[in-house]
Input
Amino acid sequence: MFDSALEGFALSIGLILALGPQNVFVMRQGLMRSHVFAVCLACSVFDALLITAGVLGVGSILAGIEGAEFMIAIGASIFLISYGLLRIKSAMSPVGMSTEGEGESDLAPTIAAAAAFTFLNPHVYVDTLLLIGGTSSRYLGDERVAFGIGAATASFVFFFSLGYGARSLSEVLNKPKAWKYIDLSIACIMFIIATAIMHPHL
Output
């Protein structure tokens, strides 16, 4: 169960680093010290709900289709390898994360903005419902639950770390060189997970 939880955590943390607009919003709120806890909690819960839907819904449905696991493994591996290659390409000409701008001042607009950055991003549905949900179909029972918990935990760890560490991280994340290493690290994570996904089928 620990291995499945760890894989879920690694997959989720690798994917979430790519959700730029959402990350920048959380960082801006952290820099402005404006509703940081509410923003981090909202983004974490939104992602956790989507991950849960993927693991319990899409993942379960796909698990019941004959031959689906193999096709999912191939599709997920191709996606992860392609994504890893894109991160390597990005590392060749890295760009710093711009954090200029002001955080939302009122709580309601802040939560609405957090929801918009989450649910209006089409990539989040591919990542949570299809990729994470599909990958979870490799596991059954408690291991699938552990995978989902690991993936959801990554959201909480990442957003709260980013929100509360924004002031100390801002100078680093504005430097293109830092993103070169971040992108290369993400690529390594994606390649390792792709290998783990395909290993049972080789």
Summary: The chain is about 80% helix and 0% strand. Residues 36-63 form the longest helix (28 residues). The mean pLDDT is 81.
